[in-house]
Amino acid sequence: MDQINGQCGVKNEILMKYHEKDVTMAKGFDQTIFQHVPRASNEDLDRLSQLATTYYDELPKRVYIEL
Questions:
Q1: Contact, 16 vs 10, CB < 8 A?
Q2: More confident residue, 64 or 56
Q3: Alpha helices, H only, the chain
Q4: DSSP 34
Q5: What sign for the dihedral angle of Cα 6, 33, 1, 64?
Q6: DSSP state of 47
Q7: What does the pLDDT average to over 27-54?
Q8: What is the average pLDDT value for the chain, to the nearest integer?
Q9: A single GO molecular function, which one (predicted)?
Q10: First vs last Cα of the chain: how many Å apart?
């Protein structure tokens, strides 16, 4: 959260890309609220994000999720 709030720099190259995208997207809204969700509380989405970043070039550009 400190990186999003500008209180701390982003050192990891992969996270820099996410940070840039977050900042760019946030400018399109009147107000944004970022909330940290611990991985333990968000296991399914954490696995999906790991899969997407690990195999990004091999994945189709659209990912469908069945609920």
A1: yes
A2: 64
A3: 13-26, 43-54
A4: -
A5: negative
A6: H
A7: 80
A8: 77
A9: nucleic acid binding
A10: 29
For the record, the structure tokens of 48 come out as 């999906």
The token duo for 39 is 């991985």
Instruction: Quickly tell me which residue has 């970043």 as its tokens.
Output: 53
Q: Say if CB 39 and CB 49 are below 8 A apart.
A: no
Q: Is 57 exposed, middle or buried (0-12, 13-18, 19+ CB in 10 A)?
A: exposed
Q: Tell me the residue type at 6.
A: G
Amino acid at 61: K
Sequence-ordered list of residues with C-beta below 8 angstroms from that of 2, at least 6 positions apart, any chain: 8
Task: Judge whether residue 38 has pLDDT over 70.
Answer: yes
DSSP-derived secondary structure letter, 10: -
